[in-house]
C-alpha cells in the first residue's frame, strides 16, 4: 500500500504512532517519520492511524 | 434478506461517518442512509476554535467545511448522505423516521449519532454579537465579527472557551474569560494544574474573572457589554458562549428511552430497551469498565471512532464477548501549550505530578490522576510526542481490570 502525510497539516500529535507503530514513529525531536509504502498487512493499522489523526493529515493512496 | 437491511444513521458528523464505514468494514452491503442537519459532509470540529478561527483563507462555510472534511473510506462511496435533512422524529416500534420536510423513511437498523449542540446562556439582553463554536458557520460568524481591536468576552472557562480565548488573544484582541466555577478547565485538570494553566494564559494577556457568572448582556440591539454577578460590566464587541452542550435527543422523545443525559446504552452501545438501535459518539451514555459500571457520556474526540466500531458490530450481530473499554483521549492547543489527556482525569480524587513542574508548563509536565488508588487518567502538557505511546500504554496496563 502507499500512503502520504501532508506535513503542512501534521501537528506531531503522535496518535498515528500509537495506532500503527511499525509505520509511523515520532523521532527524538518530536517529528514524524513514516514508511511511505508499508506492507499490506499493515492496512488495518494504517486505516486506524488515518482515522485517529487529529489533523487528518494521513492519506492512503492505494 | 439480512444483508440487504437498510441502516439509517441519524447524525452526519464524525460518529455517523465512522459508523457507516465500520458497517461496511464488517461486511454490511445493504443500503445505508446518513441524515445530517448540516449542509456539509462530515468535517473535523476541533480546528474551529483554533486554526480555522485564526486563518482567513476560507471565505465561505462551504470552503471551510471542504477544507476540514474528514477522509472518507472508499467503502462509503455508495452511502446516501442526506445533507441538510435532520430527522424530526422516530417511531421505533414501526422502524420509521420522519425528516424535517415531513417525508417518512423506513429502516431496519438505526444508529443514533446526533451529538450535541452548544448550551446557550439564558439571560436577558440583545442576541446579536453572541457567538458559539460548533459548526463551520459558527466559526465564520465569529471570524467575520472580529473587527480589528474588537474586545471579546468568552463565557465559560472549559477547553473550547480557553482555546477560543487563546486564538482571539493571538489575533490581538483584548480577551476576558468569565467562569463561575473556578480556574479554567478545573473539572478535568484539577485545581493545581488548572491554576497553573490559568497563570500561563494570563501571562499571555488573557484576563480572567473567576467566581462570578453573567447576569445579562447590555446594548441596544447588539451586545456592547456583559454584566456580571458582581455588578461589574465588561465592555464587549463580541461574546463567545462556551458553557457546555445539550444533547440532540428530542427527536427520540416519546419512545420510552432513557434520555436523561444523552441516550442510555449498554456496554455494547445497544440503546437500552431496544434490539435494533445503537448510539454512538458524544450522545451515547455507556458504562466503561476501565472506570466502573456507571454509564457516562464522553465528549472526547476519540470516542466517535471507538464507539462506531463497537456499535457496528453490535448492530450487525457480530459476536464479540470482550468488554468495550475505550481509552478516552483528547488534546487542546492554547498558545504554546499542548495538553493531551488519556482516560478520564475528571473522575480523580487524587493527582500526582510525575514529571516537570507546574511553574514551567512549557518545559513539559505529566500528571497522573487516581481514584481510590486506581489510575483513571493522565494529562501531559507539552510532552514529547514520542512519549504518548508509553503514556497511553501505561494507562492501559494499570487501569484495565483483570
Topology diagram in text:
The complex is a heterodimer of chains A (62) and B (402).
Chain A: E1 3-5, H1 15-19, E2 24-26, E3 32-34, H2 43-52, E4 58-60
Chain B: E1 7-10, H1 14-25, E2 32-35, H2 51-54, H3 61-67, E3 80-82, E4 87-91, E5 96-99, E6 104-106, E7 109-112, E8 116-118, E9 130-131, H4 136-145, E10 151-155, H5 159-170, E11 174-179, H6 186-189, H7 191-203, E12 207-210, E13 214-218, E14 225-228, E15 233-235, E16 238-241, E17 245-247, E18 263-264, E19 277-279, E20 284-287, E21 295-296, H8 303-316, E22 329-334, E23 337-343, E24 350-355, E25 365-371, E26 374-381, H9 388-399
Helix pairs in contact in B: 1-8
Question: What labels describe this entry?
Answer:
heterodimer; A: 62 residues; alpha+beta; two-stranded antiparallel ribbon; 4 strands; 19% strand; globular; B: 402 residues; alpha/beta; five-stranded parallel β-sheet; 28% strand
Can you characterise this structure?
The complex is a heterodimer of chains A (62) and B (402). Chain A contains 2 helices and 4 strands, in the order βαββαβ. Chain A has helices spanning 15-19, 43-52; strands at 3-5, 24-26, 32-34, 58-60. In chain A, strand 2 and strand 3 form a beta hairpin. Chain B is α/β, with parallel strands linked by helices. Chain B has 9 helices and 26 strands. In chain B, a hairpin with a 2-residue loop joins strand 25 (365-371) and strand 26 (374-381).
